[in-house]
Design a protein that fits this description.
145 residues, alpha+beta, six-stranded antiparallel beta sheet, 27% strand, elongated
């Protein structure tokens, strides 16, 4: 049986994938146009390719990254938790700040040990109705403070 509260399953985002590939591609084009030795260009391009692969791995688009967030949970109005792909749960998190637009919500959390954690929730990675509920829940959380 599921606890009461708000549960938001997260899927990999196509918007984030497209954005990341375009940014890495433009950076590669910029490096290729630089007036430096060819060896340095190769080094920078390889670094950009590695950066893209790491980003795709961490976002769950390639491979199985065990610490990829798969569910946001807000069973208590004041505290949140994140369930990761390896089925582990984060410590209790308090929502410190957020930034919401039509395409994305960035949630900035703080743990009891003052560690900071940010989660990006893209509109295409969640159900349309739940995305709206998340935005409303965030607005209400800051008005009630």
């Amino acid at each position: 049986m599921r606890e009461k509260g708000f549960f938001l399953p997260l899927k990999p985002s196509r918007y984030l994938l497209i954005y990341s590939v375009i940014v890495h591609f433009l950076a590669t084009v910029s490096v290729s146009l630089m007036a430096v030795e060819f060896v340095f260009k190769i080094f920078f391009v390889l670094a950009l390719i590695l950066s893209l692969l790491v980003h795709l791995y961490r976002s769950g688009l390639i491979g199985r990254y065990s610490k990829r967030p798969i569910t946001l949970m807000n069973s208590n109005k004041d505290f949140w938790q994140i369930r990761y792909a390896d089925e582990s749960l984060s410590a209790t998190l308090s929502l410190e700040s957020s930034w919401a637009t039509r395409l994305a919500v960035i949630l900035n959390f703080k743990t009891d040990t003052n560690q900071r954690l940010s989660v990006i929730v893209m509109k295409d990675a969640v159900d349309k109705q739940q995305y709206r509920q998340l935005r409303v829940r965030i607005r209400l959380a800051f008005f009630q403070r």
